[in-house]
Design a protein that fits this description.
By secondary structure, the chain is α+β, with helices and mostly antiparallel strands. Helix 1 packs antiparallel against helix 2. The longest helix is centred in the middle third of the chain and has 20 residues. The model has no long low-confidence stretch (mean pLDDT 89).
Amino acid sequence: MIRQRASAKRDLIDHYVYLAEQAGEAVADRFLQQAEESFHDLARHPAMGTPLSLRSPQFEGLRKWRVREFENFLIFYVPRPTGISIVRVLYGSRDWWDLLGIQ
């Protein structure tokens, strides 16, 4: 099961709008498709993402992985017994530590 937090859903919408404006709707559509496929890959193999060693207990178990074919976009997720929880989908060159609330 793949659960997307509200913050991850907002991220996907923001990235879609940006890509549609900058590169066209076809690219934005492909981004969403590749993000969904990446989510399904992670749900099948939740340990394949890189674990993040964070001190905050609210981020325990957090991992990151790249969106297939859009490697500048990072998926932050937590493995769960029944699947994964997508926390955020962020552009990799941004200060994602700050966007995640980690300082």
